[in-house]
Design a protein that fits this description.
Layout: H1 2-10, E1 16-20, E2 27-31, E3 38-41, H2 53-83, E4 90-91, H3 105-110, H4 112-119, E5 133-136, E6 141-144, H5 148-156, H6 164-174, H7 181-186, H8 210-221, H9 228-243, E7 252-254, H10 257-273, H11 277-281, H12 285-294, H13 296-299, H14 309-336, E8 344-345, E9 349-350, H15 351-361, H16 368-383, H17 386-398, H18 401-407, H19 412-426, E10 427-429, E11 439-441, E12 444-446, E13 451-453, H20 495-512, E14 513-517, E15 534-536, E16 545-549
Parallel strand pairs: 4-12, 6-13
Antiparallel strand pairs: 1-2, 2-3, 5-6, 7-16, 8-9, 10-15, 11-12, 14-16
Length: 559
Amino acid sequence: MAATIQTLVSEGQTLLFGEHLNASKPKSYILSKDANDFWSYDYLLFSMSSFSTPARVCLFIMLLLLPFAATYIITSLLFKATRWSNVRGRRAPLVPYSIPVVGHAMAFAFSVADLIQDNLHLCANELDNYSPIRFKGMNVELSFISGPKNVFSLFRQSRKFSAKASVVIAIDRLFGTPKHLVPSFYDHDDTGYDGKPDSGSRDVAPHLRIHHTVHVQVIKYLSGSGLKPMTNKLMENIAKTMLSSGIGGVWLEMEDLFDFCKSKLLHASINSMFGEYLTALHPDFVDDYWKFDDCTTTLVKGFPSFMVPRSWAARRKCLDSLKHWKAYVEKLVDADGRTFYEGLDPHFGSQFIRQRHEGFNKMEPMNADSIASEDLAIMWAANSNAIPAAYWFLYEIFRDPELLGRGTVDDPHPLNQFWAERFLLKTGSDHSGPLLQSYRKKHVDIPATTRPELPVRVDSAMEDSAVQPEVKYSTNGLAGAWVPYGGGQSLCPGRHYAKQEMLMTFAIMSTCFDIEILQEPGEVTLPDLGYFGLGVLPPKNKTRCRIRRRTFRKDSVVE
C-alpha cells in the first residue's frame, strides 16, 4: 500500500484525506482521482511520511497559524462592515486583532501607546469624521474617541461617566489596598460623588461613602481658599530646598536634570502636604517613593507578586513607612488634644491630610493598611504628574535662551503658554471613565460599562484647532483639543496645586540659578511612552546639564 501511495504522489495525483465509513473499525483512508479506489491506514499521519521534512514543517506552521489568520480576516471584515454602516445605534467598530479570545490584551500589556498610535488612522473615514473605535481585551473593552468636536460633546454629557472603576483599579493594583476591601467596600459604594446618592444606588451609610468623602475633601482643600495655606508652604519649601541644595556660584555638572528636580520637589511637596515628620522618620522615603513610581507601569497591569517581586517590595516599603508615620503622628495628636488648626497642621502637615485621616478613621472597614494605601494614592496624584510637568517646563525653557528671555518678562501670558504646552505635548493620560449610561455619537452607541479613552497629547489637537505661532495666548477655539485634566465630573481637582508647583519651580529656579542644558545639536530628551495612560510622561533619557547659583546683593530679597 505504501508503495502505491508513493507511486500516486510521484505521479502528481490528487490525494484527499477522510475516513472509511464502511469499515467495521474506523480507519483513515486516502481517496485518489478515481473515486472508486480506497486505501486504508491506521493513522492520518502515515500519509505525511511521503513528504519531505521541510514540507511537513511548513504544513505544521500553516495549521498553527490558521486560527490567527482566520481571526484577523474575520475581525477585519467586521470592522469594515461596521465602520461603513449607517445603522443608528450600532456599536463602534472593533479594531481587527489576530489572537482569538485574547483580542488586544497582549498589546495592552506591552504598550497601550503603540496600540493606539498604530490604529489612530482608523478613527477617520469619509462618513464619520473621527469616528470612535473599540479595543477588546480578555475582560475589558475600551472605546477610543478622538477629534475636538467629539471630545467636547462627550464632556457635555459628563454625568454619564463615573471615575469609580478607575479609582478601584488604582487603589487595588497601584496602591495595594487590602484585597478584601476592593469588592466589599470600594466597589460596593456606588452612590457617586454628589452629596445626594445616585438614584438606584445601594443603601450605604453616609460616613461609609468613600468616593464622596474623598472627592469633597479634595475639592475643599485643593482649590480656592483651602489651597492657599498649602501653596504658600509649598513655595517656601521649594525655595528652602533648592537654596540649601549645596549648589554654589561655580558651575556644577549634573548627569540628569530630572533626577535633581524630582528629588528636591518631592521633598518640598511632602513636607508641605504631610508635614516634616514623614521625611524625618524615614530619610530615604523620597528615594523609596521614586523606586515605587518606576514600578507603576508594571503594577497597574495587575501582575502578581511572584512575577514582579521588586515592584511589590518597593510599594510595600512606602506603605510601611506611611503606616509608621501615621501611628507616630496620632500619638502627637492625642498628646496635644487640639482638634483643629487653621490652614496648616503641626502634626499632619495640612488640614487636608488631617481631615482625610479623621474621615477614614470613622469608616469601620478601613484599617492602617488601607489608610496607608490612600496616603500613597494622594501623594502619587499630587506629585507623579506635577513634578514631571515642572521638569518639562524647565527643560524646554532653559534649552532655549530666547524662550527664557520671553518667560522672564513682566507679562503673564508667556508663562501660561509654556505651562499649557507642557501638558499638550508631554501628557499621556486617558480620561473620563466607564459609562453609567449609554452614549451616542454620530449613530454610534458606546454602551454602559465600556471605558471611553480620550487622546490628550498633540494628536488630539487636529487640523481644525491648529493655531498660528506668535499669536496672543488664548484658549479660544480649543474646546475639546486640550484636555490635560479631563473634563466634566472627572476634571482633576488637584489641577490648581499642580499648576502652582510648576510655576513656583520655574520662578525660583530661573531667579536663583543659571542652568545650561548640555546636549549636542539635534539631541533632545524624549518622553517615556511606557507611562502612557498614567498622566504626564517622565523623560525617557537623561538630561545632562550644568547649574550654578546666581549671586545677589546682600540686601536682595532673594538672599
